[in-house]
Amino acid sequence: MLQYESELEISRILVEWYETYKRELPWRETRDPYIIWISEIILQQTRVVQGLEYFLRFTERFPDVASLAVAEEDEVLKYWQGLGYYSRARNLHAAAKSIMERFNGVFPENYKEVLSLKGIGEYTAAAIVSFAWNQPCPVVDGNVYRVLSRLFAVDTPIDTTKGKKQFAELAGMILDPKNAGTHNQAIMELGALQCVPQNPDCGVCPLKDKCVAFASGNVQAYPVKQNKTKTRDRYFHYLYIIYKEQTWMNRRTGKDIWTGLYEFPLIETDHAMDFSGLCETQAFRNLLGDAGKLSITQGLSNVKHTLSHQILYASFYQIEIEQVPESLGNYLSLPCRDIEKYAVPRLIHIYLEKLNGNL
Question: What family is reported (predicted)?
């Protein structure tokens, strides 16, 4: 690609700013593609402040591809617990196994081979090969979309095929191929620290003299999105059933949320419902109709938990039973003290934390 001096000047400004203001983060101190990969996957849906602790814990337990590949999925999910988006952890595990089988345990250096690994898209592949080997592959994440859309006042929606192509071209246009890794880090960091979504301090931005949106006084209009994510409401009722210090859990399967994670027996209804209404459902009768006398304590009620395309409203009930019904034979029986050994969704983790703190 033929580049103009003004385009390379943008890169020089970005890198100079980055060298002065960048955050000191452990994954920036290495060229190890495995460590870079783990950090990128964790940070896809998690802010750096929250993700750092998880990154350190995860990489301490799984310091390389081999250690991750041979681990049991349950343990991988347990170390991922609290980050959410558990398909990312399962994909990491599957990709590590693939690296061991297809590439003899050596992380691939070729962009297309990296892209072929499960759970790695164009952005992550570009980040890995540019950060680890300085390959001239431009990255385009949410921060980069925002910087570029304002810098060039692009009103093409970022969530369209046309928009994605246009922004990829712009990212490549200003990329200095001789300094690709640092450039990519710099433009992402600018979006994270300076060119923020709301109320950016444009007066101190290093690119203010080149930013078309700033010149027109219309920074907040960018980036443009075409479609709003549609969400649906779901109503969960969790039953923490106890009999002589024993309880029951179930491992989620199928293509629904939280596949592979453990949860208490769940009754899902199509609308909000209090406990008296729940007791009248056939699902409740099928589960605890033969459990004898029930001693019930409500833990949390109607807790709102937002996912990317769903909003969950969850209630938790601790129920001590008089006898064990046959229906619980379909669940995993375990001592109550062993619950912490199992990977559970963040929603249940919150409940258990509050329960240990006596709610």
Answer: Belongs to the Nth/MutY family.
Q: How many residues are listed for the chain in this entry?
A: 359
C-alpha distance across the termini of the chain, in Å: 60
The fold of 230-354 is Nucleoside Triphosphate Pyrophosphohydrolase (3.90.79)
* Token pair 């590949």: residue: 69
Residues near 205 by beta carbon (within 8 Å), at least 6 away in sequence:
190, 194, 195, 211, 214
Q: Cα dist. 143→100, 148, 188, 216 in Å?
A: 33, 9, 6, 21
Does residue 22 have a pLDDT over 60?
A: yes
Q: Per-residue pLDDT tens for 219-264?
A: 999 999 987 778 899 999 999 999 999 999 999 998 899 999 999 9
> Hey, what's the torsion of the CAs at 60, 63, 67, 73, to 10 degrees?
60
Of the residues 40, 72, 245, 320, only one is catalytic, namely 40
Q: Is the dihedral of CA 16, 17, 21, 23 positive or negative?
A: negative
The residue assigned the tokens 């592949």 is: 125
Say whether pLDDT at 135 is over 70.
yes
Which two structure tokens, joined as six digits, stand for 205?
């931005």
How large is the greatest C-alpha to C-alpha distance in the chain, in angstroms?
A: 80
Residues in contact with 146: Cβ distance below 8 Å, sequence separation at least 6, in sequence order: 191, 195, 197, 222, 223
Domain segments of the chain: what residues? 230-354
CA dihedral 69, 74, 78, 84 (to 10 degrees): 90
pTM of the model: 0.84
